[in-house]
């Protein structure tokens, strides 16, 4: 039975049957962005095919020689650019965009046997093909970044050496069963009590008589006698004396 770990799937991320190849002198390879107009874009030294191949976790940009008379024959590998993405080596180390055109790129090719490196310029006839080529490489870069993140999470698992808990496991913060919780409340009897009494007295003093009267409605006065209301104060006093005299006269007559 075949071991599943030894199986590496091979898939083509992108391919184009008509790509221009350009020689790039070492003097033109600098830290600055390359320029396609320095390669004489109208005169490529070869027109071949390009393929972006992923096998397992590895990726290559492979350049093939043009087909001969026999179209059914397999293409001959001309050069390849291994794309080995790491946190220190981004995609721009292997494939660089040209500053003057989005259809041209600079590749760092490497001999698989001698490990010697050189630089080759490539160009696409259609802008859409160039965009698809770059998109395929960016998708592979995202795939590698996800692998690095998964490896970092796996390495940050349980640390048996120092006995520290794993960051992936949440700590149990629940109260143990049968535990007793004691809460001590500090009460200031002197200062707080005096402060509360001052607040209550000030709130009572701030209330105006109008507000207090509004809270307890007063009964209306009894209706006055119309005849009495027309008398002057002097007449009212005299009438009151007469009433008193009449009552006193009744009392004396009764006693005699």
UniProtKB/TrEMBL annotation:
InterPro entries: NECAP_PHear, PH-like_dom_sf. Coiled coil: none annotated. Gene3D superfamilies: Pleckstrin-homology domain (PH domain)/Phosphotyrosine-binding domain (PTB). GO terms for cellular component: clathrin vesicle coat. Residues 10-186 form the NECAP PHear domain. Residues 187-242 are annotated as: Disordered. Pfam families: DUF1681. GO terms for biological process: endocytosis. Residues 226-242 have a biased composition (Low complexity). PANTHER family: ATP-BINDING CASSETTE ABC TRANSPORTER-RELATED, NECAP-LIKE PROTEIN CG9132. This is NECAP PHear domain-containing protein. It comes from Pythium insidiosum. The lineage of its organism: Eukaryota, Sar, Stramenopiles, Oomycota, Peronosporomycetes.
